[in-house]
Each structure stands twice: as structure tokens, then as C-alpha cells.
Design brief:
Layout lengths: L2 H11 L1 H26 L1 H7 L2 H33 L1 H9 L4 H41 L12 H28 L2 H5 L13 H22 L9 H34 L5 H13 L1 H30 L1 H8 L4 E3 L10 H14 L4 E16 L14 E7 H6 L11 E5 L14 E7 L2 E10 L13 E5 L1 H10 L5 E9 L5 H8 L10 H44 L1 H9 L4 H33 L10 H31 L3
Parallel strand pairs: 3-7, 4-6
Antiparallel strand pairs: 1-8, 2-3, 2-5, 2-8, 4-7, 5-6
InterPro entries: ABC-4_Integral_Memb_Prot, ABC3_permease_C, ABC_permease_BceB-typ
Keywords: Cell membrane, Membrane, Transmembrane, Transmembrane helix, Transport
Family: Belongs to the ABC-4 integral membrane protein family.
Length: 649
């Protein structure tokens, strides 16, 4: 019998083992081809006019997607080899060398990979259209885009998939070369009876794991996080949470289970024997995989929740940065003429189009100043340095339609959305010294506003608003060249924004923004973000859910003899399933629960970025969707156990 004949016979015999690994390969090819198609398709890039944003976002996401698929496929490959360890041992027992067995497995792997590649490309071509429509919907594009077959996407997928096959083939070769015959026959029993640490050491390590997670949560949301060492602080938090999670799985949970068993004097019943005992025996083997799944779940949930929150709050956050529908300034290179002349032309165009509006001239002062205060954050670097200031009169701003508070005489309110997350209530009051014609005007800054007061300056200049009396005093002393005119337009009917924005495009200055165009650009950017994170989240969800499902299928096969014995003793399927459901509640529920808690604290630590929106709803929706997918895998696993138990007799 030749090696090829042996390969064909082996593949026929092991169909029940192959379909798990084959599914993993097909899933990887399909996802990567879809993602690559949307990245490289010229029609998508050209007609959405988002080439720069899409290129950078998709390139970064491609690396992450490859990493997810690499973990998924290699894990499925390891499980595939473990389920066939006895067969591999028998091959060697009958006289095949390790080299021959390695070649047999590598040929099988290449054949499976080729078949999965063909099926995956076909599936990707069928499903790509659906993802394209979703992407166009998210970025707000209402036109028609015809998706065509992409040679670049095909080539990129082929190269990436070839790398995956090479990696898995090398792992097969390496494992066969290093394995001993006795290990192959006992591979499915590894780590079932690990040596338990001493009770006192277990208690200390168990408490340490929970403490490290708690310290990481506290530090991430404390005032000590936002310092000049922010990057190192983030690494410290990540290390604390990951190590704490591993210790929790490796020691803490096992220690708690031991306490439960001791309290019951070892009489844990049938349900406990089918849930508590297997989990304790396999905790060492499961700790690493559960830690990885929990950590990546938290990261995926945090990214998905953050992206959906950004998309959900696009309109509100845009209005914070661009408070006026249109604002005409003399900043930048554009049409010749003063702001009043350009405003008159724009008003005439709006009148011709039948669009109702209110028009308000605004004068601000461009000055320099300095801030001082005991609680000023170091990241601002304001202490001892001068700052460019734009000073506004609240009377004119209110006349333009802004709902802002009017400070007392001699006081000011600061408006700068770019630094609002640093200026908490504890920072104020802050002293401000404004340079006016060779002298200094002292102001007391008492609070920070909820929005910018002039469109286009967010994060560029710091804006101060004063009441009429204080503004008039400073304006009178300020040189004429510091006076800057603006004209604000706000429409009566916001439904006319799209039409008016098209008209305003002819008058738009370099640094001046109108609300509608800024909103559409932000919506497109956030739409791409949520599509990429959602796609990666889907890939990770299916990957991790499948890994847990595959692992439980393997354990069900190993425990089949126990189920046969229980059935022979008279136990019904329903009685046995009570313990199985408890086990699956832990296997799927604990990593999901810890991932949810990790992600909640991660999102909370960056919630300061949302200045005007409550993100509870979008984050909750993302978490519920994530939990439902995990629930589906748990139900599938329980169904597989039920079939295994029913077939035990």
C-alpha cells in the first residue's frame, strides 16, 4: 500500500474528525476573502470617496484578522491531532516511521486546505454582497455599488491561507517528531489529575488573582491614570488584569470549588460529579485557553462597544464641535472679500433656494494669555506657558442661538472640547491672565462649557466666554487687529441642511466647518470603524465560540464511557443533563461574564471622550449581541452532549 492509498483510506475513515477542522479552514478563507474584497474593490473605494480612511483602517484590521484566524485554525489543528493521537500511535506501532506519518498528515492537511480554499472562496463571493450593502448603509452612502471579483483579494487570501497551511503543517511535523509512543496513547488523559497546590498557598494565590483584577480596575479609572506616563500606565493595567485573570482561572476558581466540595464532605451528587469534578480535573489545561478567550473577549467587546457608541453619538458629538449650522470667517484661503460680504452672498443664495435662516454677526478677540491653578493637569502643560485665546461675548452667542451660561463680571467659562476630559470639577477655579495692549486683564475661570462656541476651532484654540460688561472692557482696550468678525447662520428647518451645505461648499474656508458636511464625514468615519470592529468581533466570536464547542465535543467523546456506565446503572438522560448544563454554564458563562466585566471597566475608563452622549444604551446592545452568540454555541454544545448521552447505550 502506497502513502497516497493510506492517505485516501485515512481521510475516508476520519470524516467525523475532519469536519471540525475543515469548518475552521473554510470559515477562515471566507472571512478573509470577504474582508479583502471590500478592501481592494476599486468601485467601493472610488464611489464611497473614503479611500484614505478605508486604506488605513482595513490594513490595520487585516493584521488583527489574520491573528484571530491563526489562533483559531492552529487550535482546531491541535484539537484535530489530539483526537487522532491513538491512530497516529497505531501507525507507528505497525512500523511507519515518524517521517512517513508526518508526510501522511501534511498531505492530508494540504488536501483539506485546498478543498477549504475552493469552498471558502465560493462562499465569500456569495456573501460579499451582503457585507457590502451593510458597509454602504453604515457610511451613509445611498448610491449603487457593483461589487466585482477582485484578483488582488484572491491573491492576498491565497497567500495568507498558504501561510496558515505551512504553519499548521509545521506544527504537525514538530509534534510527531517530539512525541513518544506512550504519550500518543495517553494524550487525551493529560492534565486530568494535576497536582494541587497546598491549601494555604491556594488561598493566597486565589485572593491575589482577584486583588490584581480589582487593582487594575481601580487604577484604570483613577486620577493617576492620566499622567505623562499614560502609555506605561495602560501596559500596567493590561498586565494586572491579564495575570489576575489567569490566576483566577488557574487557582482561584479551583480553590473555591475545593472549598465547596469540602463543605459537602465530598458528597457532591450526580450533577456535581458531572460538572464540578471534570472542571477541577481539567482546570490546569483550561486556564490558558480560558484566559486568552476572556482577555480577547474583553478587548473585542470594548472595541465594539466603543465603535458603536461613536456611531450612535455621531450627531450629538458633531454638534458639540460644530455648534452653528454655518459659520463664515476670514480664516484660511478661499473667496476674496470680508466675512460680511461673503455672508451677504451666501444669504442671497439661501433666499433664492427658499431656505429659511437666522443670521447673526459675532465679533471675537484673538489674544494670548496664561492659566494658573493648583489642580491644573500636567498633561495640559499650561503652567508657565502662554496660550492662544479666542474671547467671545455671550450676548452675541445667545443671539446666534447657543444655549450657554453667562458668567459673572470678572469671570469666564472655558470652551475647548479637545481638553474637556482633563478639566474636571476639581480643577476649578483657575486663574487666567489675558494680555491686552501691554497690560494684563485678570479673570477667574469657574467652569468648562459643554460645547465649542465657534465651528472649526475644536482642539486648536482655547475659547473663553465672558458676559457683556467684561467683554466690552477688554474689547475697548484690545488693539483693532485682534478683533475678528464672524457671521453665523442657523436654519429654521434642519431638513434643509443637505441642500444648504451644497450651496455653502462654494464659500467654505480652509478652517471653517459647516455642521452637515462635518456630520456626514464623521458618520462615514464612524461607520467604517463600526464595520471593521464588528467584522473582527464576528470573526473572534465565531472563533472562540467554536474553540469552546470543539473542546467540549472532544471532552464528550472522552467521557462517553462514563455516560454508558451511568445509563447502565439506570440514570435517565435528563438526570445526567443537569450536571452537563451546569458544566456548560461555567465553560461558556464564566469567560463571558469576566469578559463583560473587563470591557465595562475598559469602556468606563475612556467614557470621557463622549462629552454629550450617554453611551449606556449602545454599550448594552453590543454586550447583549455578544452574549447571544455565546449562548447559541452553549446550546449547540448541550445538544451535542445530549446526543452523545442518548447514544451511550
Amino acid at each position: 500500500m502506497t502513502l497516497v492509498d493510506l492517505v485516501i483510506r485515512s481521510m475516508r475513515k476520519n470524516l467525523k474528525h475532519y469536519y471540525l477542522y475543515f469548518f475552521a479552514l473554510i470559515f477562515g478563507v471566507t472571512l478573509f476573502f470577504i474582508f479583502s474584497t471590500l478592501q481592494h474593490d476599486s468601485a467601493v473605494v472610488e464611489q464611497t470617496d473614503l479611500s484614505a480612511k478605508m486604506a488605513s483602517g482595513f490594513q490595520a484590521a487585516t493584521v488583527l484578522l489574520f491573528g484571530i484566524l491563526l489562533i483559531f485554525v492552529t487550535y482546531a489543528n491541535d484539537l484535530f491531532l489530539k483526537r487522532r493521537s491513538r491512530e497516529i500511535g497505531l501507525y507507528q506501532l505497525v512500523g511507519l516511521t515518524k517521517g512517513a506519518v508526518s508526510r501522511l498528515l501534511i498531505i492530508e492537511n494540504i488536501l483539506l486546505g485546498a478543498g477549504a480554499f475552493i469552498v471558502g472562496i465560493g462562499a465569500g463571493m456569495l456573501v460579499s454582497r451582503l457585507f457590502l450593502l451593510l458597509l454602504m448603509k453604515l457610511v451613509g452612502y445611498e448610491g449603487f455599488v457593483n461589487l466585482s471579483f477582485s484578483g488582488a483579494a484572491f491573491l492576498q487570501t491565497a497567500v495568507v491561507f498558504a501561510v496558515l497551511i505551512v504553519i499548521t503543517s509545521f506544527r504537525m511535523f514538530w509534534k510527531i517528531r517530539r512525541s513518544q509512543l506512550i504519550d500518543l496513547f495517553n494524550d487525551d488523559k493529560k492534565d486530568e489529575h494535576p497536582k494541587q497546590p497546598k491549601p494555604i498557598l491556594s488561598a493566597l494565590l486565589g485572593i491575589l488573582g482577584i486583588a490584581m483584577i480589582g487593582i487594575g480596575y481601580w487604577f484604570a479609572n483613577s486620577e493617576y491614570m492620566m499622567t505623562a506616563f499614560l502609555f506605561f500606565n495602560m501596559l500596567l493595567v493590561l498586565m494586572l488584569v491579564i495575570v489576575g485573570t489567569y490566576i483566577a482561572f488557574r487557582v482561584t476558581i479551583g480553590w473555591l470549588m475545593t472549598l465547596v466540595r469540602k463543605q459537602q464532605n465530598g458528597h457532591i451528587g450526580l450533577a456535581g460529579a458531572l460538572s464540578l469534578a471534570p472542571l477541577m480535573h481539567r482546570m490546569k489545561a483550561n486556564a490558558k485557553s480560558l484566559t486568552v478567550i476572556t482577555t480577547l473577549s474583553a478587548m473585542t467587546l470594548a472595541m465594539a462597544g466603543f465603535a458603536y457608541s461613536m456611531y450612535y453619538s455621531t450627531e450629538q458629538e458633531t454638534r458639540v464641535r460644530v455648534p452653528h449650522d454655518f459659520l463664515i470667517d476670514e480664516v484660511g484661503e478661499g473667496n476674496e472679500g470680508t466675512s460680511a460680504e461673503i455672508a451677504a452672498q451666501f444669504a442671497e443664495d439661501l433666499d433664492s433656494a427658499g431656505i429659511g435662516y437666522t443670521q447673526q454677526p459675532i465679533t471675537y478677540l484673538e489674544l494670548t494669555g496664561a492659566f494658573s491653578g493648583e489642580n491644573l493637569p500636567d498633561l495640559l502643560n499650561w503652567e508657565g506657558n502662554t496660550v492662544e485665546l479666542l474671547v467671545f461675548d455671550t450676548r452675541e452667542l445667545k443671539a446666534a442661538g447657543l444655549d450657554i451660561e453667562e458668567p459673572e463680571t470678572g469671570e469666564a467659562t472655558i470652551h475647548n472640547n479637545g481638553i474637556s476630559w482633563l478639566l474636571t470639577k476639581e480643577v476649578f477655579p483657575v486663574g487666567a491672565s489675558v494680555a491686552v495692549d501691554g497690560r494684563t486683564e485678570k479673570l477667574n475661570v469657574t467652569s468648562i462649557g459643554t460645547q465649542e462656541v465657534a465651528s472649526g476651532y475644536a482642539g486648536v484654540y482655547t475659547q473663553l466666554t465672558l458676559n457683556g460688561e467684561t467683554f466690552d472692557r477688554i474689547k475697548e482696550a484690545a488693539p483693532a487687529e485682534s478683533h475678528r468678525p464672524l457671521v453665523a447662520f442657523n436654519l429654521d428647518d434642519k431638513g434643509d441642511l443637505a441642500e444648504a451645505s451644497a450651496i455653502f461648499k462654494n464659500y467654505r474656508e480652509e478652517m471653517t466647518l459647516d455642521f452637515y458636511s462635518t456630520y456626514k464625514e464623521s458618520l462615514s468615519y464612524n461607520g467604517i470603524m463600526i464595520f471593521i470592529t464588528g467584522f473582527l468581533g464576528l470573526a473572534f466570536l465565531v472563533s472562540t465560540g467554536s474553540i469552546l464547542y470543539f473542546k467540549q465535543m472532544s471532552e464528550a467523546e472522552q467521557e462517553k464511557r462514563s455516560y454508558t456506565t451511568l445509563r447502565q446503572l439506570g440514570f435517565k438522560t435528563g438526570e445526567i443533563m443537569k450536571g452537563i448544563r451546569r458544566k456548560q454554564a461555567f465553560v461558556f458563562g464564566i469567560p463571558l461574564l469576566m469578559g463583560l466585566v473587563h470591557s465595562v471597566f475598559a469602556i468606563k475608563s475612556v467614557s470621557f471622550l463622549f462629552t454629550s452622549t450617554d453611551i449606556t444604551m449602545p454599550v448594552t446592545i453590543a454586550m447583549i449581541a455578544y452574549a447571544l452568540v455565546y449562548l447559541a454555541f452553549a446550546i449547540l454544545t448541550i445538544g451535542y452532549y445530549r446526543k452523545t448521552i442518548q447514544a451511550a447505550l
